[in-house]
């Protein structure tokens, strides 16, 4: 996925040059992880399906990775056997690199059809047991991190010099963590790309929800939604119309993203 490419090409973005090749190795140790969850008394577990793990080329024409399908089947079955309900996120920022190379990932509306194809595969394969689906994780985070400041994959955004010129207090940049100062890429347009990406993410979300509600929900009896992230904004002066409107506008630009 684009996160594999991002962390391997720019190892300074993760502490000690880490990446997701092995990480905590839950791929091999999921049974031990589930035992820990059960011992903690937890009854639900949220995890993400990696799009490129089940469809390495991003769509069905490029082939299905049966090993990936088997892994998620085993994980879901083990969770349920231990009384733990799976909450499954379908997209957690990891666009298949093949689609990023082909048309720019979420910069192109072409991704909506490929995403629909991917989630349909997931509904067919796992929907008999998964009753809680999340289409996207925090579209605001991936749009801003990936296309404004370059801290997330694919690492696009303003150049360092551009950001310094636009920053209200450039001296503060010297206090940033090392990964923050090296994260900004000269590729992309932070004035337009985050809006394009978010627009296409929301189209993909809508396509997935419509597909599930039309073709799967009645027989599988599940629910589907989205995960959003936001700070909460309050007006500095609740009696000031300008402050109230500013707080609403700030919420629109984060919670409403």
Automatic annotation (TrEMBL):
InterPro entries named in the record: GH, Glyco_hydro_1
Annotated SUPFAM superfamilies: (Trans)glycosidases
Superkingdom assignment: Eukaryota
GO molecular function annotation: beta-glucosidase activity
UniProt KW Hydrolase keyword: yes
Biological process (GO), any one: carbohydrate metabolic process
UniProt keyword terms in alphabetical order: Glycosidase, Hydrolase
Family: Belongs to the glycosyl hydrolase 1 family.
UniProt cross-references to PANTHER family, sorted A to Z: GLYCOSYL HYDROLASE (PTHR10353), MYROSINASE 3-RELATED (PTHR10353:SF137)
Protein name from the UniProt record: Strictosidine beta-D-glucosidase
């Amino acid at each position: 996925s684009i996160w594999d490419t991002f962390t391997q090409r720019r190892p300074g973005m993760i502490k000690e040059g880490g990446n997701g090749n092995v990480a905590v190795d839950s791929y091999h140790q999921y049974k031990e992880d589930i035992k820990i969850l059960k011992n903690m008394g937890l009854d639900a577990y949220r995890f993400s399906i990696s799009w490129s793990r089940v469809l390495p080329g991003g769509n069905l024409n490029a082939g299905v990775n049966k090993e990936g399908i088997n892994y998620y089947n085993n994980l879901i079955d083990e969770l349920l056997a231990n009384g733990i309900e799976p909450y499954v996120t379908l997209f957690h920022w990891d666009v298949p690199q093949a689609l990023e190379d082909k048309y720019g990932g979420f910069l192109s509306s072409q991704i909506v059809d490929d995403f629909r194809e991917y989630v349909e595969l997931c509904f067919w394969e796992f929907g008999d047991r998964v009753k809680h689906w999340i289409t996207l994780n925090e579209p605001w985070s991936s749009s801003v991190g990936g296309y404004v400041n370059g801290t997330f994959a694919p690492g696009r955004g303003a150049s360092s010099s551009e950001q310094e010129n636009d920053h209200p207090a450039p001296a503060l940049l010297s206090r940033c963590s090392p990964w923050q100062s090296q994260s900004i890429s000269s590729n992309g347009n932070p004035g337009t790309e985050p809006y394009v990406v978010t627009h296409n993410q929301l189209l993909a979300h809508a396509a997935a929800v419509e597909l599930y509600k039309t073709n799967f929900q009645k027989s599988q009896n599940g629910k589907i939604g989205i995960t959003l992230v936001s700070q909460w904004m309050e007006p500095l002066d609740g009696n000031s119309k300008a402050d109230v409107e500013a707080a609403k506008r700030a919420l629109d630009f984060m919670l409403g993203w």
